[in-house]
Each structure stands twice: as structure tokens, then as C-alpha cells.
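I need you to check the entry underneath: sequence plus C-alpha cells. Let me know what the C-alpha cell row says about the fold.

>
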Amino acid sequence: MSDPSVPADLLALRAPVPDWFRWAVSMPHQSRSIAVAGCPIHYLFWPAPAESFGRRGLLFVHGGGAHAHWWSFIAPYFTRGFRVAAIDLSGMGDSGRRESYTAELRAQEMRAVIADAGLGPHPFVIGHSFGGFMSMKFAARFGDELGGAVIVDSPIRSPEEEAQQPLSPPRWANKRVYESFEAALARFRLMPPQSCDNDFIVEYIARHSLMPVEGGWTWKFDGAALGARRFGEPFREYLQAVRCRAALIFGEKSALVSRATASYMSSLMGPSAPIVEVPEAQHHVMLDQPLAFVAALRMLLESWIRADP
């Protein structure tokens, strides 16, 4: 649960923690950084057991305003069969800030981390929400280098659905500076807003979402990286142009991906693309149903690997 910018006592969880979660976040991992187009890009890396070297790699990509630690309780469940990393996209987490942000730059960041982490030939990319949109861009641009891309609850809606039920991008207010860590922690909210029965997971990611600044504490994201213009790119075209296997995992009760949305995305990806609905999950699938998410992702990746020559 290390975070070099936050004292260890502030990262300690107060909520009761189940054994599976305690095991996952206690697994050794490394904090690494690499420069991409003049910006330091931070990522977490989980060293694989010796017998896993030479196997396929996995790159986890977080959502908007999030960070690599959203995957810290998921990634260790894949280290027995994969080399695993989780990126902080520029403008978020412990990565640097840019004057402007594009999906092309984020794709370059993902590609650089895959190389630096030694994830090997044809790794898999798993992107949640905003990270799913960046994974669409990556798979359209560099898909021939991937084994597959898994989109997790990132909505590409049909023109008809958009006309009937317009979705507005979430509004990110200007970041406040809070005088204490606990005052900031009390203001943490999931976006889009939703309940989550797993209080310990929400608390964990909240504690890793803060950084010290002059005058107190604030959130680990650049507001400029989260403006409405980040949705201005043709992600529908990116998804349709994906140059590798693709799949969609979405929550049964997601506020963003309905079954109609999933059906439309299936038509863009093609009939061979798996569509997996996780029961009882909302938009933040891996927070709501973490072990069901692990099981679904494991099954999906193993089916792809077995299909390879």
C-alpha cells in the first residue's frame, strides 16, 4: 500500500478488510516511471513468479480522475500467469502534467509502459471507463501489437440512443485544497455517483487519490485533463477500427452502459467479440463485484490464449 507522497499511517484502512483484499494489496509491487513526449509517466508493476516469465503481459488502464491503485486489488490475481502493470495516464495519479492532452498521446504512454515493463509480445490491455476509450484508440493505432483489448463499461452509444437519452460528461469542479487529509478524504465521491457496498475498496482508492500541496491536500489529477473536450474525439470510429480482438465487460446496473449500448458496441466490434455482463455491478465494476470481475476477465483471457496458434 506504499505511496511515496503520503505517510504510511494515512494510507492505513479503517474499514474492516476481507482476507482476499488484504492478500492482494500486500503483494509486492514496484513503482516505476518513464518519460513519454517530455512527460514522466508513472506505473505500478507486479513482478511475476519465475515460472511466469516469458508469458503474456497485461496492462490495466484506469478511468477519468483515477489512478493505477484502482487496480491494486485486481492485478495480483493475474501474476501467476502474466506479467502485470497498471499505468497512471498523464494528468492523473503520480504521472506528470501536460499543456494539452490527446488520446494519441495516451496511446503512446501505454505503448511505452508496455515496453518498459517488459510485457512481451502481444500483451492484453484492459481499460475501464475513460481508460476504455484510451484503449480503443490504442487498439486502433497499435492493435497489431496486442493480443486483445478489453473495454470495461466505456459507453459508445448509437445515434438513436444518444438522441433519446443524451448523456452529459461528468462535471469536474475546480480542485479544492483541504487543510487536512481527513477533511479531503471525507469529500471523496465516485463519478458518476453510485453506491458501493465494499466500503474498504472505496476507502482504499480514496486514500491513494490525495497528494500534499502548499496549504494542505488535494486530488491527484489535473483538471485540464478532465475537461469536456476529452470526449470530442471519434471514439466510435476508434472502436470500429480496432486492429485486434476486442471484448466488452459491463455492469448489469451500470448508469452508462445499458444492454442497448452493449448491443450497439457489439455491432461495431463484430460478432466474434465477447460481451460479458457482470450481475449486480454498476459502472465501477471492479469495485462493486471485484471477484466476479476477476473471474470473468480470467475466463476471457484464457479463451483468447487457447485460440492462439
Remarks:
- The chain has a mean pLDDT of 92.
- Strands lie at 30-36, 39-46, 57-61, 83-87, 124-128, 148-152, 210-213, 216-219, 246-251, 275-278.
- Residues 27-169+231-307 form a domain with the Rossmann fold fold (CATH 3.40.50.1820).
